[in-house]
């Protein structure tokens, strides 16, 4: 068994123990100074931090309860590193659209808060357990994959 981020191949059996969710986050200080967006269109009046590696770049496709809205914010900072953008958001530079697993620790610590709760981006990719083809998977492998899935969910998703 191995782990793989992204998409697997047709020659392997894959089990997605967890699917990431993209969400909007900002520091409490940024929101106190600039206000909190109430609807996706409000993002156009904010300093946004754009990740060029995002599949939908430069658009931010958002969904909530079956509704879909796409915004193309003006970005105060654009980078190809999610870690750089997350750090900038923590320092109060603006709002970024990032994966829950990346923002999770800062959200739990209170360094970031979710903006437009309930609105999120498309779930794509993920972390997969890549298993040999066939139906028979040893019990210890299934138990290991289940333990990894629980650890990921407990550590990353808020």
Please mark out the parts with pLDDT under 50 across 5 or more consecutive residues, or reply none. Answer: 1-12
Strand order of the largest sheet: 7-4-8-3-9
Give the distance, in angstroms, between the N- and C-terminal Cα atoms.
27 Å
Helical content stands at: 25-40%
Radius of gyration: 17 Å
Shape: elongated
Oligomeric state, counting identical vs distinct chains: single chain
Mean of all residue-level pLDDT scores = 83
Can you walk me through this structure?
With 158 residues, this protein is α+β, with helices and mostly antiparallel strands. Helix content is 28%, strand content 30%. It is built from 4 helices and 10 strands. It has helices spanning 28-34, 82-90, 100-109, 139-156; strands at 2-5, 13-18, 22-26, 48-51, 60-64, 67-71, 75-79, 95-99, 113-115, 127-131. Strands 7-4-8-3-9 form a 5-stranded mixed beta sheet. Strands 1-10-2 form a 3-stranded antiparallel beta sheet. A hairpin with a 2-residue loop joins strand 5 (60-64) and strand 6 (67-71). The longest helix has 18 residues, at 139-156. It is elongated. The two termini are 27 Å apart. Residues 1-12 have low confidence and may be disordered.
List keywords for this structure.
28% helix; disordered N terminus; five-stranded mixed β-sheet; 158 residues; alpha+beta; 4 helices
């Amino acid at each position: 068994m191995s782990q793989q981020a992204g998409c697997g191949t047709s020659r392997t059996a894959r089990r997605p123990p967890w699917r990431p969710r993209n969400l909007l986050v900002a520091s409490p200080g940024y929101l106190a100074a600039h206000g909190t967006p109430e609807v996706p269109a409000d993002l156009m009046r904010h300093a946004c931090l754009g990740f060029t590696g995002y599949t939908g770049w430069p658009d931010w496709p958002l969904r909530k309860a079956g509704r879909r809205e796409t915004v193309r914010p003006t970005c105060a900072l654009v980078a190809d590193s999610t870690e750089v953008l997350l750090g900038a958001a923590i320092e109060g530079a603006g709002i970024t659209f990032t994966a829950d697993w990346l923002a999770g620790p800062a959200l739990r610590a209170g360094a970031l808060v979710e903006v437009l709760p309930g609105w999120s981006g498309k779930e794509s990719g993920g972390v997969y357990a890549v298993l040999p083809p066939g139906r028979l998977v040893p019990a210890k492998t299934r138990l290991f994959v289940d333990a990894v899935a629980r650890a990921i969910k407990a550590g990353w998703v808020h």
